[in-house]
Amino acid sequence: MREVLHLLRDGEFHSGEALGALLGVSRAAVWKRLEHLESALGLSIHRVRGRGYRLASPLSLLEQEELVSESLAAGWCAEVLEVVDSTNAEVLRRLAVGAPAPLLVLAESQEGGRGRRGRAWVSPFAENLYYSLGLRLEGGAFSLDGLSLTVGLAVLRSLREAGLVEAGVKWPNDLLVEGRKIAGVLLELSGDPAGACQVAIGIGVNVNMLPGPSVAIDQPWTSVRECCARLVDRTALALALGRWLRHYLDLHEKGGFAALRDEWEACHLWQGREVSLLAGPQRIDGVVLGVDHLGALRLNVAGQDRQYSGGELSLRLRDDS
Questions:
Q1: Which one from 114, 136, 181, 261 is the annotated catalytic residue?
Q2: How far apart are CA 300 and CA 24, in angstroms?
Q3: Helix (H, G, I), strand (E, B) or coil at 41
Q4: Which one is catalytic: 54, 94, 116, 298?
Q5: Quick one: pLDDT band at residue 38, thresholds 50, 70, 90?
Q6: Within a 10 A sphere around the Cβ of 190, how many other Cβ atoms?
Q7: What are the residue ranges of CATH 1.10.10.10 in the chain?
Q8: Which of 49, 96, 218, 299 could be 286's S-S partner, Cβ–Cβ 3.0 to 4.6 Å?
Q9: What string of DSSP letters covers 74-128?
Q10: Bridging pattern class, strands 274-279 and 174-177
């Protein structure tokens, strides 16, 4: 069916004859096949007598050959999947049975995409980037401290390269544009962090998704397409992300997050802002001072410099209801 999607992805009308030739069926049977495509992938296809069929909105499909080729040239194994439960879960499964690393897995859609604190990550077909890089680490030589913040810088540079110069980071792993979330980072580990372990670096970027009744997200969000007012080439964005990831992971390996701390703070949108840090039922009010050399949040709480870290923490602006 990917051949059909490649034909329809421009959002223009294509004849039943052309689609029938691709599918190997009669013109009369085309619509049933397209209905199955709609149902399986959640797409909307319009039919107009005398004109043919078109997608309700153009698509930017991931170009597997280009992505795999550039990854291999950089020493990464890579694969692009149509549908997966979670790219992070798939990476960890493959590493657990001996797959070579670094291992990059991208997907056109996820059925069980995950964010921090157990949240679902909305993952419609061919709209966004669902991107996971798997690393196999031995002996604790590679510091995991502050790694999600380092990865956030790579995502930020990719977004700014795409034209979103106003994008910035928010501790611990969000990327925002004008107060709305556009991307996030989720690290998941398997094994002993002080010894041999595998880590999945999961990155989700809202690329071409637009607001609508079918998109249920419980926080303000935006996408690259909404900000730039154009359909975005997801393959080009994924390639840029790979290049920036290699750059920042190399810096992190050599100097840890401490070497990137000043750069990260310069990109932190909530630097100096009054915030509330939520840890379960506990709420801590303070002013953001920055982060320490391990990536922990530094707050001025009642005149004292305090540090906080942990996967279950949530940071909110004091004036953010």
A1: 181
A2: 67
A3: helix
A4: 116
A5: confident
A6: 17
A7: 2-55
A8: 299
A9: TT-EEEEEEEES-HHHHHHHHHHTT--SSEEEEEEEESS-B-GGG-B----TTTS
A10: unpaired
Does the annotation mark 181 as catalytic?
yes
Is 225 annotated in the active site?
A: no
Start-end of CATH 2.30.30.100 domains in the chain: 271-317
* CATH architecture observed for domain 64-265: 2-Layer Sandwich (3.30)
Q: Which residue in 32, 230, 283, 316 is the catalytic one? A: 316
- On the question of pLDDT at 215 being above 70, the answer is no
According to DSSP, residue 19 is labeled H
Torsion angles phi and psi, residue 208, rounded to 5: -115, 5
Listed in sequence order, the residues at least 6 apart from 162 whose beta carbon sits closer than 8 Å to its beta carbon are 224, 228, 232, 237, 240
CATH number at 2-55: 1.10.10.10
Find the mean pLDDT for residues 111-129: 74
Prediction pTM value = 0.91
Question: Which residues partner with 224 through β-bridges?
Answer: none
Q: Is 316 a catalytic residue?
A: yes
Q: Which of 93, 122, 73 is nearest to 239 (CA)?
A: 73
